């Protein structure tokens, strides 16, 4: 069953050991931990019921594993796309986020981190390209906390300070020529 409504389910991957320790993940490539695998299965069951035609994932294995769970449950394919890659935290990848903030005042101020503006521009460009390439709906995009938050804030400026818990999902719908955020930071039961 495909939908004529242009709808995207933007998901975040399940938990990793780095998430659990409050560390910046970025381009590090840890696997899902036991909690993350269970979260991915619950997310997959929920999103499969929305009948996605394709699942597109960041290339990092925590996202790919989550995307594979969703695609298997929905009996569809996973496409890996580098444009959904996580924020580059440079030399601070793997560092405790609170320590980086204590030292520099914010993650954004730490030297070598992909700037918030560059991330926001990259993510919006990627989203626009991915939805332009889609010809059937709905689509699931599986990415990362920083990526999802940057995109949601660009689509709805009222969403500049929201969370993206592990294995959460967001519903985006195209209507009246604009993408709207219908739901954000939703967790499966």
Descriptive notes:
The chain is of the alpha/beta class. It has a single domain, classed as 3-Layer(aba) Sandwich (Rossmann fold). It is 37% helix and 19% strand. The protein is built from six helices and six strands. A six-stranded mixed β-sheet has the order 3-2-4-1-5-6, with helices on both faces. Helix 3 links the parallel strand 2 and strand 3. It is globular.
- Shape designation: globular
What is the CATH class name? Alpha Beta
Indicate the CATH architecture.
Answer: 3-Layer(aba) Sandwich
Structural class: alpha/beta
Spans of at least 5 consecutive residues with low confidence: none
Q: Provide the β-strand percentage band.
A: 15-25%
Question: In which range does the helix fraction lie?
Answer: 25-40%
| Radius of gyration from the alpha-carbon trace, in angstroms | 16 Å
> What is the total number of structural domains?
1
Query: How far is the N terminus from the C terminus?
Result: 24 Å
Q: What value does the average pLDDT take?
A: 96
GO cellular component, one term: cytoplasm
Pfam family, one: His_Phos_1
Organism: Rhodococcus opacus (Nocardia opaca)
Keywords: Glycolysis, Isomerase
């Amino acid at each position: 069953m495909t939908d004529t409504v242009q709808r995207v389910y933007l998901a975040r991957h399940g938990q990793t050991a780095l998430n659990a320790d409050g560390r910046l993940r970025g381009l590090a490539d840890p696997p899902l931990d036991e909690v993350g695998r269970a979260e991915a299965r619950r997310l997959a069951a929920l999103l499969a019921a929305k009948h996605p035609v394709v699942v597109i994932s960041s290339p990092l294995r925590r996202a790919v594993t989550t995307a594979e769970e969703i695609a298997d449950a929905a009996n569809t394919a996973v496409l890996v796309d580098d444009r959904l890659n996580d924020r580059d935290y440079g030399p601070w990848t793997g560092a405790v986020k609170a320590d980086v903030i204590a030292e520099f005042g914010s993650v954004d101020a730490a030297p070598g981190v992909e700037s918030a503006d560059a991330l926001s521009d990259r993510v919006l460009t990627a989203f626009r390209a991915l939805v332009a390439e889609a010809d059937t709906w709905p689509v699931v995009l599986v990415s990362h906390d920083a990526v999802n938050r940057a995109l949601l804030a660009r689509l709805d400026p009222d969403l500049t300070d929201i969370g993206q818990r592990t294995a959460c999902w967001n519903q985006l719908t195209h209507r009246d020529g604009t993408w709207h955020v219908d739901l954000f930071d939703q967790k499966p039961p």
